[in-house]
Every structure is written in C-alpha cells, then in structure tokens.
Amino acid sequence: MKLLSLDNYCFSEWWAKSAKGETMIVQPKFDGCALGLRYQSGTLVAAFTRSGKDVTEAARIICNLPVELPEDGIAVSEEPLEIRGELYAPNLSRTKSQALAAGHLRKKNPTGAGLSFVAYEILGSTADEIEDIKRLESWFFEIPPTNRTADPKQVKRWHKEWLSCELFENLPTDGIVVKVASGESKNRLGSNSKCPNWAIALKG
Fold it and tell me: What is the pLDDT of residues 76-107, one digit of tens each?
C-alpha cells in the first residue's frame, strides 16, 4: 500500500496539462495523519501510516471508522480492499488536529478521544470519483464535502474562498484538493513515483 503525496505547483498549468475539458472534484485538504486501511472479506485487517507503520490497533478504536463493512459484494470480496483517508480532529485548529492525530498513533494505549476518520479514496479503483465517494458513504465512512465543476475559474474562486476562511471553514485544513472526476481519465493520467497526475493541492 503506497500513500502518495499531492503536488502543489501552478493550478493553471496542471489544468491545461491534465484537466482541460474534464469535470473536477474539489474537496478540503484535511490536516491530520494519512491512513491506509486494508479490508479482507469485509473486515479491517490492517492500517498503515504514510511511512508504512502498522497502526491497526490504533485505527480500530476510532469511533467512526468501520471495523466491518456491509455485505454489498465489493466490500466483502476475498480480494483485499484498500481505502485511504485522514485521521483528524474535527473541532480543533489544523496544527492541533495534526498533533492530536499523530500523538494518538504514537501512544501505547490510545483512546481515540476527539478524533475522526474521513475516507476519500478507494485505492486502485477505476470508477469515477463521485461513484467512489458514494460507495464509501454507503459503507458508513465519513466522506469529505465535495464540490464539482468543469470551470477552472470556479476552482480559483473556491480557492479564494478557502483563503478567506469562507470555504470548509469549520474543518482543520491546509488547502483544497482538486481531482479529475473521471475514472477513465484518472487511469490514463496515472501517477509518478511521488504524486498522482490527476490531482493537485492548492494551498495558501
């Protein structure tokens, strides 16, 4: 399981190269700790940080993180199902959110107090972004607020709103994430060794 970073170079350049003519998804960039979850036959069997540290037991006690998935076919397949998301503190500032999440993952006897898990990617999926988000929600994961547009000017307006604390203002964020919505386009664009080519982060 490899949890890639997000590139954050010029949005206009990224759009012209990767997203021109595409519907785009805009979501908050949560400030916490990235986690990858692995389910086998619908049961959580492993959780990892970006560095590869096994934090399965710490993940199991997060109150809104499903340990068992509904029996809808895909979720209970014998093939491993891997989901990416963020462990964060919904009622704290971004720096305190990151510190609380990191501290939880370091403790020998963590409680999970004050933390939530938000899921935003089914790793290896070839489906459209909205389809995956709806699927995650049907499995009882918390999902991020999700806007969509094909207009790059609208993305820039949303970024300005985020900078002015008018968008995703109640969440601990350090930017917004822009993704290509089409599963076919995401598969075509692929990833490099560090980042997906179909997504970019816009920060302050």
Answer: 677 899 999 999 999 899 999 999 999 999 99
Mean pLDDT of 1-30: 95
| Residue 130: both structure tokens together | 């909205």
Length of the chain: 204
2 vs 33, 75, 138, CA distance in Å?
14, 20, 24
The DSSP code for 203 is -
Give the residue carrying structure tokens 């340990």: 67
Residue that the structure tokens 């501290």 belong to: 103
With contact defined as beta carbons under 8 Å apart, do 112 and 104 qualify? Answer: yes
Q: How many CA atoms lie within 13 A of 193 on its CB side?
A: 0
The sign of the CA dihedral 43, 44, 45, 50 is: positive
Assigned token pair, 133: 């988000």
Question: Do 115 and 65 form a contact (C-beta atoms < 8 A)?
Answer: no
Instruction: Check if the beta carbon of residue 115 is closer than 8 Å to that of residue 88.
Output: yes
Regarding pTM above 0.90, the answer is yes
What is the identity of the amino acid at 121?
E
